[in-house]
Amino acid sequence: MGDDDLLRRLPADPAYPTHHAVGIRTVLPADAVDVVLVTSRLAPLWRRWRAHILAEARRIGRSVRGPLLEAGAAPG
Q1: Which residues, in sequence order, are bridge partners of residue 61?
Q2: Superkingdom of this entry's organism (predicted)?
Q3: pTM given for the model
């Protein structure tokens, strides 16, 4: 099951829209969300693009969390 399929399964609530994107720059404005979750699905991109992914996550979110951010995490 892909990410888009999982998002479609979430309850629709206009007060809490969901976004799915992989890219260096998203369409979201600065501080648009409370939490950005960097999932393990980004592990293949993490070594090369880590700094860029984190910069964008920090730009759009007040908090950035995820398994790739844990100390000692060594993504594939």
Answers
A1: 33
A2: Bacteria
A3: 0.65
